[in-house]
């Protein structure tokens, strides 16, 4: 059995230099993308910034060059937590404002093939039963997504996080790694975990299924619906 010697939280570390040789020459930083359309959240110190898409999914995590002069590496997890949730709240606020524009909703596509088969009472009962079943599955999945915490760990194994109800509630970073690793590497693993938490903890935006699609298609063409039920 291989012993896991990683250190988490606020444990004392006396061998910060255990990876110093490998990290002596950090990779050059690439160009920073334009964040004008993103939702940016920062921690109280300003050392950490999280950029989220309008849907709340994290686009990037940014550390100021000398972030260790502003915060202790053992407090990095708390700073990332604060910045991530600030970005999420900004994205939520923007989403609420956007929902006021009902004209932005795309119409339900209508099939090119028009089915004029008469729609009987038995057909209606079958369709509504199937729609109710698909809605029940959606609701069950929604309840589970909202109420059950989701977890994620970076592929490098240095960052872990927990989220619930769309909010990051816990973040853990390997202190020894954070002390010696170059900023781009830290930023990459932080963003990886935050994206995974969002993807695993975000429910489908709306219910779907063949029965729901059939009902939407009927509702989108009232004249066709009247013909199918024999009223036109």
The overall pLDDT, averaged over residues, is 76
Shape field = elongated
Q: What topology, given as strand order, has the largest sheet?
A: 1-2-3
Number of helices: 6
Class per helix and strand makeup? alpha+beta
Rounded to the nearest angstrom, the distance between the terminal CA atoms is 75 Å
Helix content: 25-40%
Q: How large is the share of residues in beta strands?
A: 5-15%
Runs with pLDDT <50, length 5+? 9-31
Largest sheet: 3 strands, antiparallel
Tally of DSSP β-strands? 6
Computed over alpha carbons, the radius of gyration is 25 Å
Secondary-structure element pattern, one letter each: EEEHHEEEHHHH
Short synopsis of the structure:
It contains 6 helices and 6 strands; from the N terminus they run βββααβββαααα. It has 232 residues and is of the alpha+beta class. A hairpin with a 5-residue loop joins strand 2 and strand 3.
Verbal overview:
With 232 residues, the chain is α+β, with helices and mostly antiparallel strands. Helix content is 40%, strand content 14%. The protein contains 6 helices and 6 strands. The strands form 2 sheets. It has a 3-stranded antiparallel beta sheet with strand order 1-2-3. Strands 4-5-6 form a 3-stranded antiparallel beta sheet. Helix 2 packs across helix 5. This is YbaB/EbfC DNA-binding family protein. It comes from Lentzea sokolovensis.
């Amino acid at each position: 059995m291989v012993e896991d010697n990683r250190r988490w939280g606020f444990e004392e570390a006396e061998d910060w230099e255990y990876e110093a040789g490998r990290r002596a020459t950090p990779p050059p930083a690439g160009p920073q993308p334009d964040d004008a359309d993103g939702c940016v959240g920062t921690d109280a110190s300003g050392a950490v910034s999280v950029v989220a898409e309008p849907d709340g999914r994290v686009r990037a995590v940014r550390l100021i060059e000398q972030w260790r002069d502003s915060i202790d590496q053992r407090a990095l997890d708390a700073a990332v937590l604060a910045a991530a949730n600030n970005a999420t709240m900004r994205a939520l606020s923007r989403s609420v404002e956007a929902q006021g524009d009902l004209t932005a909703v795309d119409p339900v596509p209508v099939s090119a093939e028009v089915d004029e088969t008469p729609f009987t009472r038995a057909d209606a009962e079958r369709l509504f039963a199937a729609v109710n079943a698909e809605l029940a599955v959606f609701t069950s999945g929604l309840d589970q997504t909202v109420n059950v915490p989701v977890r994620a760990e970076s592929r490098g194994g240095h960052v872990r996080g927990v989220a619930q109800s769309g909010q990051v509630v816990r973040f853990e970073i390997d202190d020894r790694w954070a002390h010696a690793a170059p900023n781009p590497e830290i930023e990459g693993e932080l963003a990886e975990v935050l994206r995974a938490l969002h993807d695993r903890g975000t429910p489908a935006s709306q219910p779907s299924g063949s029965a729901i699609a059939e009902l939407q298609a009927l509702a989108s063409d009232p004249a066709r619906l009247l013909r199918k039920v024999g009223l036109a």
